[in-house]
User: Which sequence fits this backbone?
């Protein structure tokens, strides 16, 4: 093709047809420019397709993480509700005569003091942040929600840390010398088991102001955690919907 154009140019020059040669040269330049523009456009389309494919992979991984997180959030919310209810029951007991079932008392105690924590499944989001590739997501609403979820989790971790410190201060230390944890755990995990449980522990726990305050703080903190978790769950649900829509575009 190049030889063909060269022969045409040489023929026009040899015949002293400069005006025709000039028109031809302009036309040749035009064709070259058009070819370059087409090549640039094709390359741009290829790059956009590659970027979109990479984005889809990130979105699918995010979707998998968020669906898992949604399931775990629903479970931990139920457990926070249960712990708050147990704390409320134990906080309200004023004397041993109000305890109709010793097994139930021990079960509620273990429900309160058992450390239960949810760690979010946000591996893909963290990878995008650490690699600087969060900008690869084209949907700004998805990015905003992911950042809000991450911020809310950091708030939640601070509250959870405070709850753990309270457990040590108000339960683990004072319980160490007065509770039979082995039977207490059985009362919690095997409620129908026939156990010999100490009433002395119940009496001490009811009369101990520190322990009573611990139940009050446990109720407050678990309710606060439940609210924070529910707020995160709402954002996770919204993000899942947006990602599904973005993938199916």
Assistant:
């Amino acid at each position: 093709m190049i030889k063909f154009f060269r022969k045409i140019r040489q023929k026009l020059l040899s015949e002293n047809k400069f005006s025709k040669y000039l028109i031809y040269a302009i036309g040749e330049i035009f064709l070259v420019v058009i070819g370059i523009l087409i090549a640039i456009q094709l390359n741009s389309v290829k790059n956009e397709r590659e970027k979109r494919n990479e984005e889809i992979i990130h979105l699918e991984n995010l979707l998998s993480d968020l669906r898992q997180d949604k399931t775990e959030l629903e479970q931990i919310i139920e457990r926070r509700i249960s712990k708050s209810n147990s704390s409320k029951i134990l906080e309200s007991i004023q004397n041993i005569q109000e305890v109709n079932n010793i097994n139930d008392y021990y079960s509620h105690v273990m429900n309160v003091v058992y450390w239960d924590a949810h760690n979010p499944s946000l591996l893909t989001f963290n990878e995008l942040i650490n690699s600087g590739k969060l900008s690869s997501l084209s949907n700004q609403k998805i990015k905003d929600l992911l950042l809000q979820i991450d911020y809310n989790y950091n708030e939640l971790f601070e509250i959870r840390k405070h709850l753990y410190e309270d457990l040590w201060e108000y339960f683990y230390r004072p319980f160490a010398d007065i509770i039979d944890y082995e039977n207490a755990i059985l009362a919690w995990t095997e409620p129908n088991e026939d156990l010999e449980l100490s009433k002395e522990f119940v009496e001490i726990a009811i009369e101990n102001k520190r322990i009573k305050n611990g139940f009050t703080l446990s109720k407050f903190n678990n309710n606060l955690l439940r609210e924070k978790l529910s707020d995160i769950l709402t954002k996770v649900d919204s993000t899942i919907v947006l990602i599904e829509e973005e993938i199916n575009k």
The radius of gyration is 35 Å. Residues 18-92 form the longest helix (75 residues). Helices lie at 2-14, 18-92, 102-113, 123-131, 140-175, 181-189, 199-207, 209-247. Residues 84 and 223 are 6 Å apart (CA to CA).
